[in-house]
Design brief:
It comes from Noviluteimonas caseinilytica. Pfam families: DUF1611 (PF07755), DUF1611_N (PF17396). This is DUF1611 domain-containing protein. By secondary structure, the protein is of the alpha/beta class. The chain folds into 2 domains: 115 residues, NAD(P)-binding Rossmann-like Domain (Rossmann fold); 195 residues, P-loop containing nucleotide triphosphate hydrolases (Rossmann fold), CATH 3.40.50.300. 34% of the residues lie in helices and 18% in strands. Helix 3 links the parallel strand 3 and strand 4. The relative contact order is 0.12.
C-alpha cells in the first residue's frame, strides 16, 4: 500500500476547464507544495494551480523528475489529446505518474516510448493483491470518516486537516488515503474505486486495521451515499472502515451534483441521517461530530455568518478546515469528545 515516487513534480492539467476535476493538482499544491515545481497545460485549459507554467524541458532543467497527471475526469480515461504532452514529458527526461482508471502502461504508444527513453510509467490507482472479503468484525482503535453531499468538495482536505489537528492536540492520528490524490500526498493507501466491488469493504478493513485503543485513523471519504454513480464506493467504505465518528463535508451554493446536473445535491441533514442508519450496521455507536463546509468561494464575513447559522440549524459544530479558527476548533473538539 506504500508508493515510492520520483520527486519533485510537474503537474499536468490537460485542457481542463472544470476546477473540480483538477483536485489532484490542487491537492498536491496545497498539501505537498515542496514537491511541486510548476504546472503544464494544453491550449484551452482555463484551470490553473497558480504555480509557474513550465514546459517539460524547463521543468526537468529545474529539477523535476516526474510529470503527474493532475486531473481526474469523469470515467478516469486518458484522452488522445494528451498523448503528445505525455510523450513530450518522457522525451524531456520525466517519468509519468497517473492516477486515472486508465493505466499508463496499457497505452502502447506510451509503453513503447517509456522503453525507448528509459522512463517509468507509475500508476497509483492500483489496489493491493488478495484483498479479503469484509468480515464486519469490530477492530480496536478509533476511526473517523469524512462523508460528502457530493464528490470533489473537501472530504480529503477535511481528513488531512483533522489528522493534523488531532496530532496538535497530542493524539496519535494517521491519515488514511482512499483515492489517488490522497495516496500521492500520504505515500500510501488503497484506491477504493479501483477495487472489485465484492472486496471494497474488505479493502477498507485492510486499510484501517486493529490499532492501539487511543489511536485515530482519519479516513478520506469518497463520493456520496446519495450519488447516482458512486454511492456503492461510499457505502463499502462506510461499512468497512466502521467509523466511530463521521464529519459531513459540503460546499455551500452547489445545488446540482457535479457532472450529473439532473440530480440535486442532498441536504446535510439527509446525509447525516442516512450515514447513521447505514453505518450503524457495522458500527452501532456511530455519531456525527459536525459539518465541514468548503467556503472557498465566500468572503470571510459571509463564511463566519454561515457557520453560525448552520451550527444553530443543525445543532452541531460547523467550520471550514482551510479557514481554521474557532469554528474549526469546535469541530475538532467535538470529534475527540
Amino acid at each position: 500500500m506504500n508508493v515510492l515516487l520520483p520527486q519533485p513534480y510537474l503537474l499536468f492539467l490537460g485542457e481542463t476547464t472544470e476546477p473540480g476535476y483538477a483536485k489532484t493538482a490542487f491537492g498536491l499544491r496545497d498539501w505537498s507544495p515542496q514537491r511541486c515545481l510548476g504546472e503544464f497545460s494544453l491550449p484551452g485549459a482555463t484551470v490553473s494551480t497558480g504555480l509557474p507554467f513550465l514546459t517539460p524541458v524547463q521543468a526537468r532543467n529545474a529539477g523535476a523528475r516526474a510529470m503527474v497527471i493532475g486531473v481526474a475526469n469523469a470515467g478516469g480515461f486518458i484522452p488522445q489529446t494528451w498523448i503528445g504532452a505525455l510523450l513530450e514529458a518522457m522525451q524531456a527526461g520525466l517519468d509519468l505518474v497517473g492516477g486515472m482508471h486508465a493505466r499508463l502502461r496499457d497505452i502502447p504508444v506510451l509503453r513503447d516510448a517509456a522503453m525507448q527513453y528509459g522512463r517509468r510509467l507509475i500508476d497509483v490507482r492500483e489496489p493491493p493483491a488478495k484483498i479479503p472479503v469484509a468480515s464486519g468484525r469490530r477492530r480496536t482503535g478509533r476511526r473517523l470518516l469524512t462523508v460528502g453531499t457530493d464528490c470533489a468538495l473537501g472530504k480529503k482536505y477535511t481528513a488531512l486537516a483533522l489528522a493534523r489537528a488531532f496530532q496538535a492536540h497530542g493524539e496519535a492520528a494517521t491519515f488514511r488515503a482512499t483515492g489517488q490524490t490522497g495516496i500521492l500526498i500520504a505515500g500510501g493507501g488503497i484506491p477504493m474505486d479501483a477495487v472489485v466491488a465484492d472486496f471494497a469493504a474488505g479493502a477498507a478493513e485492510l486499510l484501517t486495521p486493529d490499532a492501539d485503543p487511543t489511536h485515530w485513523d482519519v479516513i478520506e471519504g469518497q463520493g456520496s451515499l446519495l450519488h447516482p454513480a458512486y454511492a456503492g464506493v461510499s457505502l463499502a467504505l462506510l461499512h468497512g472502515s466502521q467509523p466511530d465518528v463521521f464529519v459531513v463535508c459540503h460546499e455551500p451554493g452547489r445545488d446540482r451534483v457535479l457532472g450529473h446536473p439532473d440530480f440535486a445535491v442532498p441536504d446535510v441533514l439527509d446525509v447525516i441521517d442516512l450515514t447513521i442508519r447505514l453505518g450503524s450496521r457495522t458500527s452501532p455507536h456511530i455519531r456525527c461530530a459536525g459539518v465541514s463546509l468548503n467556503t472557498a468561494k465566500m468572503d470571510t464575513g459571509a463564511a463566519l455568518r454561515l457557520f453560525d447559522r448552520e451550527s444553530e440549524r443543525l445543532g452541531m459544530p460547523v467550520g471550514d478546515p482551510m479557514r481554521g479558527g474557532k469554528a474549526f476548533e469546535r469541530l475538532v473538539k467535538a470529534c475527540l469528545a
